[in-house]
Description:
Blueprint: H1 9-15, E1 21-25, H2 26-39, E2 47-51, H3 58-66, E3 70-73, H4 76-85, E4 92-95, H5 101-109, E5 113-116, H6 121-128, E6 134-138, H7 165-177, E7 182-186, H8 196-217, E8 223-225, H9 243-258, E9 267-270, H10 274-277, E10 281-292, E11 296-300, H11 309-313, E12 319-321, E13 329-334, E14 343-350, E15 358-361, E16 382-386, E17 392-396, H12 401-404
The structure holds pyridoxal-5'-phosphate (PLP).
Amino acid sequence: MEFNVPFTKDQVKEWNVPTPFHVYDEKAIVENAKKFLEAFSWAPGFKNYYAVKACPNPYIIKILKALGMGTDCSSLPELMISEKVGITGEEIMFTSNDTPAEEFVYAKKIGAIINLDDISHIESLEKSAGMPELICFRYNPGPLKVTGCDNVIGNPEDAKYGFTKEQLIEGYNICKEKGVKRFGLHTMVVSNELKEESLIQTARLLFEVVLEIKEKTGIVIEFVNLGGGIGIPYKLDDKPVALQKVSEGIKKLYDELIVANGIDGLKIVMENGRFITGPYGYLVMKVRHMKHIYKDYVGMDACMTDNMRPAIYGAYHHINVLGKEGNGHKYDVTGSLCENNDKFAIDRVLPEIEVGDILVQHNDGAHTYAMGFNYNGKLRSAEYLLKEDGSIEQIRRAETTDDLFATLDFSKL
Ligand SMILES: Cc1ncc(COP(=O)(O)O)c(C=O)c1O
């Protein structure tokens, strides 16, 4: 895998905006999303509900909406962002857990597809918002792991999410008795999965459950949501997912299990975030200090509030030094947080670095800015869209100390 930066050091200078910032390549996002949707165009009713949690910026979501994507929301603010973009009704899939009553009420009011995380939530939903016409359940396969998949979201048996198989059957029956007319089935068992086979086998898992539900309850499921989790290459030796292979594998199973059993109207949907925007975001940051003690440190003006993945998962994010090439030196690339794990890279061989150099960290378009926080009073950076003509448009300003202190009343001290 080669990691190229779609802008130059001169462009960054011309943009003349303070570092650090996150920038998303609009053209690349659109091209990738189109290819993704095309790969699954054979699938009845195919839709990707973009996982808002991956990059909760309404300007990005607006771009995806124009291509036909909906949103996958896990909270009230994510529902609100979707609404602001004009995404409502069944264009939204609401997959939350430990859901507060007011979020059920809001989701029902705007007509989102409500995906319940637990059998006890049927009662919570009914009491708080009333039963909808369409309902979906999240399935946790427990010990029935997806074949060939080793990149699960933890061990399903240890995961807090979803219904057991028995609960699914019971839950669909309960909802049918309560007058629900339409039903969906969802799972999310993989994360950043690069193996085509395990993505294909997620579909098998759900198709088989669809058949079992029909047999045991008479309910014909309207759609399966295969979740998100399609992976992207983070490391130099990671191989991109061959989407066509995944699509063909799922189609083969669809024909064998679904069409052959006479339920060929079954829709297939997904809720990928990372695969859609991840590779097209860049964290642009400047070297503030160099420090030489027992190791050589590059002190950035960004910190782990801009991307905590390296700190919490030990994740590798490739880094380029703009305008420099070659392997000069081994560095730890650090932020300014009072946490020793505030490191973008450890023992990374990079070109010889000096104060003022611009470093660009890749795969910043999903689960990076979004996971930001304010520890140490660090302020979140601005977000920009890289336009086709090489200019940038601000799509979120940087936080200020006024934003940070907005919840405090200093006058009462
Ligand atoms: C329920 C659910 N759906 C979708 C996603 C999106 O995952 P990804 O961005 O890896 O596709 C997540 C990620 O945490 C999730 O928890």
